[in-house]
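Run Small, acid-soluble spore protein H through structure prediction, thanks.
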Amino acid sequence: MDAKRVKQILSSSADIEVLYNGTSVWIDALNEDGRTATVHLRGPLEERSIVEIDELEEK
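Sure, done. The structure for Small, acid-soluble spore protein H is below.
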């Protein structure tokens, strides 16, 4: 995924499913470096991780 698409997903009101290593995640923010994003797993766990955006995949 590229930074432009991450920004589109963040600004969208639609529920767009994004996968990280095959796991469904929410994108919280595109980080300032433009190469990483802060995400958390969908579900009850709120643990956040910083991941490379090129490892995110839109389902």
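The chain is about 15% helix and 40% strand.
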